[in-house]
Fold this protein.
Amino acid sequence: MRIATYNINGVKARLPRLLEWLDETRPKVACLQEVKSQDEGFPAEEFEKIGYHAIWHGQKSFNGVAILADGVKPIETQRGLPLLTPDEPEDIQSRYLEAEVDGIRIACIYLPNGNPLPGPKFDYKLSWMKRLRARMAELWELEIPCAVVGDYNVIPHDDDVWAPKAMEKDALMQPESRDAYQRLLADGWTDAIRTLNPRGGVWTYWDYQAGAWPRDHGFRIDHLLLTPELADRMTAVGVDKEYRGREKASDHTPVWVEIAPE
């Protein structure tokens, strides 16, 4: 069973590339971020034509997440992250969607970018990460196979970026962002890509600017975190790098983990 994550950067703008990838690689589950579509405009029927069923949590022009499953309908279990205190402002951004697919709990996330910093966007990023950790703790307590995947907007280590100096002032590499990510791993979650690529050097994102793609100036911000019940069944991980080089591609590329049957 292959579980994949893909920040598509506009589901309508990249629909031909997305359908192409789904048809060529056939992941069992595909989690999408930055769909940038209102709920009523999400092109679910296009996925159904090739055998995928979808649930989605949309937002006009920004954010938005979706979970697609091959041959089965994802059973939604949660939409959005609860606030931790009553005095927190309501979160209206569409960044979290969770579902059950073939006995595995899948959470699809689009974590806030946090730039510019300091400021409210970086504060929102850190508070969102606290709420994510709280939800992941609840999932952990269920003792079920679970994957929390998506665009985390965190570069965990210096060897997860082509040039640490180039990103040192970015919200993706701030100590607070990295510490919040490392707390998730300290809670027991397995970073699938890192586990099988311990020396780093794996990129999942290349900016559209400054020739980043042809120069391979990328970094890793798309992650797949697994509970022990799922990590024990992990057989392979991969980055579908070639899809970043296709015409009108997303600036991210698909990332996946292969899970063996029980």
Observations:
- The chain has one domain: 2-259.
- Residues 2-259 form a domain with the Deoxyribonuclease I; Chain A fold (CATH 3.60.10.10).
